């Protein structure tokens, strides 16, 4: 299938597919005689994994650091992707992402509590994180 069809099948844009290819997340696809990119179901499955990981809060940089293992997530059901083994390079990506989410939850909780105090007429907590 051509790039537009593959993008639609994966729920993204042709521009995103070219970007993923440029960043090394997606292998360069086969080309037609006229030079157009041709994608198969394997590439579409990989783009779906990339999109799922981005939706979970991973960055493109995070995914680039473990691009050689993304194919493992194409299986249905996907295997466990986290690891508690510090020797496993993938555990660093998942661990950093979880830590970043925990920090953001803490920040947003403090922000919400401060706003609720102000809304009820109590003085704001000036020591709370912005």
From TrEMBL:
Classification via SMART domains: HTH_MERR
Superkingdom of the source species: Bacteria
Keyword DNA-binding: yes
GO molecular function: DNA binding; DNA-binding transcription factor activity
Protein keywords: DNA-binding
Residue stretches making up the HTH merR-type domain: 1-69
Full protein name: Transcriptional regulator, MerR family
Organism: Actinacidiphila guanduensis
């Amino acid at each position: 299938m051509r790039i537009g069809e593959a993008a639609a099948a994966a729920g993204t844009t042709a521009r995103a597919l070219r970007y993923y290819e440029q960043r090394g997340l997606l292998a360069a696809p086969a080309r037609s005689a006229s030079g157009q990119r041709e994608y198969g179901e394997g590439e579409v499955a990989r783009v779906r994994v990339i999109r799922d990981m981005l939706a979970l809060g991973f960055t493109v940089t995070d995914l680039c650091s473990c691009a050689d293992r993304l194919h493992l997530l194409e299986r249905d059901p996907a295997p466990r992707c986290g690891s508690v083994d510090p020797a496993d390079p993938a555990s660093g990506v998942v661990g950093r992402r979880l830590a970043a989410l925990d920090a953001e939850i803490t920040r947003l909780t403090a922000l919400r509590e401060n706003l609720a105090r102000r809304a009820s007429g109590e003085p704001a907590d000036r020591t709370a994180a912005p």
